[in-house]
């Protein structure tokens, strides 16, 4: 494809043939590139597509023939979704877990973002002693993998804090759906270092004149934060919101430990992992179930991809 | 229909409590910080007026209390970080030197155990294979795709498709790929895509996930499938950021596509490439969900994070579990430090 372009001496006439050749080459180039990249993209999508098609096939069909035979002999049913969402007990009951996922995710996104934006503002625009060191400290906490915190944090919830035999904080003693609070707490802690870091990047780059003018007018920090900073950082808030949403919705480890496995608190991921373990051959449930868990992040992701990509590019060292 | 919506009500109630708590905490904090200083300012104004009216000296203005504001703005974050990360991390480090019930000090026993026990050595080797292969394969694919798609039509649609797995949970991805690796006896029709391909090429169907060491590589494919999209997006943005006049100049010089890639594209996107490789390495070191969902760590596929979970939360071996967590931390440490230094350099440069 690399036709050597003759290097004609400088001058106007040189551009004529070169550009034509270049144009042809470019068109060829772009045609192969288009073809290859579309083929690869389709290849990348086949696994998900197979799952999607299978989830609409009747049980006996899924278990005896490959999903690709669907196109020869299409048989369509919604029974799998009906079963996996609403039937009780061991066969799914995913609707219940879907609600759990929602109940876990919404506060787990709101709390860290609000706290982190407050902290990021203080670290960027309020003068106080030790500010830089504090920022570096929070920043450095990103290196702690959450595995380091799991055992002690679970003990903090279940037995409280004792120091030298004296009970300082009582155990939380949460039952059933109250355990959501533990998961919110854990997710908030684990999200903060990254959220503070990302928002600090945005907030510290706001024009200083703006703040100065507001201060001169007598605005206090909370007022500046509410009326000037918050509206300006909405794109950043959206980016980190999507990030955190996907992270919490798709998380298995934190939920497994802090929510327990029951249908009162466990999110979709925990339930699906369980189904995959105990009913690994019930493909009619696994395919429909997996799709139920995928569909919400997929919608969020596709509709807000722009913000998500921006968040990714701004920094990616989530601990 | 057996589903009972009434039974779900307590959850919504709990969610509402959570949201009320959110509004109360954040709103309350802002309100408090708004109202109290205003009140002080009013009082000071009144004092001034009174002082002027009385003909006395004007009271000197006190320094504005910046520190107090900073304290309240930072309070929630610091509280959560201390309780949820700093103290636990220190405790985990201590626990790793204690026995399973965390009652007696055992020195380095837990660490010695890690390297003595054959099954754990296997875990460490598996983790090593993961962390060597995943970043390499995912970045390589992401890079090739980013270069290709840069010249292609329908660019954003193609990118979206490759990027899509990023939105899918590791659990979902593991199920998707388990379905591809599914196995049925060789006299039956196959339902797994991989076995179907093997059979149609005249081979024997296999129970892919039971065969060590092949199964580890098949699980690695899942992770690569997810992470390649991330690599592609970041690298594609880096490629787009190369100044057009450099590319134009190179083109006028008659540079071939191959030379263009090695002499212009690669040097320009090097920082982004490093960020991608390091980020994926960190994610790979902590991989948990895929292994747990696909094989539950059986058939020699275990990695550090799943073994840590098993030790600490299934077998009640807190000491050994903590030692594994600390080991994970030590492995991640240099990568993250490198990453952070890189990011700062980029930001300054």
Q: If strands are numbered along the chain, what order do they take across the biggest sheet of chain A?
A: 1-2
Low-confidence runs of at least 5 consecutive residues of chain B = none
Low-confidence stretches of chain A: 1-17
Query: How many strands appear in the DSSP assignment of chain A?
Result: 2
**General shape of chain B:** extended
CATH topological fold name of the largest domain in chain B: MetI-like fold
At the fourth level of CATH, the homologous superfamily of the largest domain in chain A is: MetI-like
Calculate the mean pLDDT score of chain B and round it.
86
**How would you name the oligomeric state of the polypeptide chains in this document?**
heterodimer
Give average pLDDT of chain A, whole number.
82
Count of helices of chain B?
A: 13
Total domain count of chain B: 2
**Within the CATH hierarchy, at the fold level, what is the topology of the largest domain in chain A?**
MetI-like fold
The count of domains of chain A is 2
- Count of individual beta strands of chain B: 0
Largest sheet of chain A: 2 strands, antiparallel
Radius of gyration of chain B: 29 Å
